[in-house]
Amino acid sequence: MVDLALAHPATPEGKAWEALAQVPDPEIPVVSIADLGMIFSITPLSDAGIRVELLPTFSGCPALDTIEKMVREALVDAGFAPIEVAFNLHHPYTSDRITERGRQKLKEWGITPPGKSSDVLLADNLDFLNEVECPVCGSRNTEMKSPFGPALCRSLHFCFACKNAFEAFKPIC
Amino acid sequence: MLALKELLYKMADDQLIYGHRNSEWIGLGPLLEEDISFASIAQDKVGQSRVLYNLLHRLGEAEPDTVAFMRNASQFHNAILVELPCQAYEFALMRHLLFDEAEAVRFEALRASSQADLAAFAAKFSGEIKYHTLHARSMLKRLLTGSEEAFTKLQEAFYQLWPYAGGIFEPSPYEAELSAAGIIEAEQVLQGRWVERISAFLEPLGIHPDATLLGHWGGRLGQHSEHLQPMLDEMSEVFRLDPTAEW
Prior knowledge:
The complex is a heterodimer of chains A (173) and B (247). Chain A is an alpha/beta fold and 173 residues long.
């Protein structure tokens, strides 16, 4: 597989990537679905057609229909037709796919970026969600309050140093 | 094909019904965090059931929404365990452990399935289920090592639920076919693995699972408790007002 982010902007793949890089995650609008690592593949079809395969972060993510619609619109605006958009369930999404820029944006928006996805696989308790870095003050003197938050991909935390409650993007595998 | 469909239906129905029961905690959890956790787990389960219903649809069954909302209790293949009303938080929490550990065992096994779709979905679900089992374990550990009142309540819930949990592993009429085809191992093999996991966790905390008490079969054949039909009526009330409506 080619590195999508490095595809030449003049190619259909590169043009589609640029369009998709503008599609925000509906629940974390500062980060694009591209930076979250949700784009699995971009395949040019005959004429000006394009096929995009996306990886859902969670099977039950309620934003999937919205994301599909936004992806279609972005590709229409970029001049592609016909357009195929599909969710690929054969390659599990992992939070390791989030780009460096994505991690930075999460942090700026007040969400701690995830640790390694292997942390979840190896865990026999939830301690790996404790002492994550506070996005407000940078302290690790923090505690996980709930492994589930306002969206499936986020957990709830409290910082003892600056007394702020905050959210983290969970490691997902 | 019949064997595969039976397997998919029972797993999807378990997830849908368990998901719906867990969603009943929205707004009612004893702590805000638990309210959110049960709601999130419900969302995962219903989402996973949709993935399986979609696969069934590709194999010739009706649309996922039709399958979810238009069947009667006798057409559901879920274990009776998941349809029981939530009653109290300790009941929901103990069921959460018993059911999600069973899901973990089942989907872990399915990662090696010869059915490629199922193997891929199992890998995806396993990552999601890991958070469910970790959540159940962390809450139970805190409460079982906390006050005597908490321990007693959870122990009672355990004795009430444990026999029903055996229904998750009710033998399938297609078992020989499924295991010969490499789709999934025999239910009793999975049950053995699950009993080991549950015992390893609960024994040190003072609760003693006894595998000879596991029972309550029938759910897989559509024989349910009196609790399922009223739940389905409520769950499908809006859908049935106009099954052709676009949402």
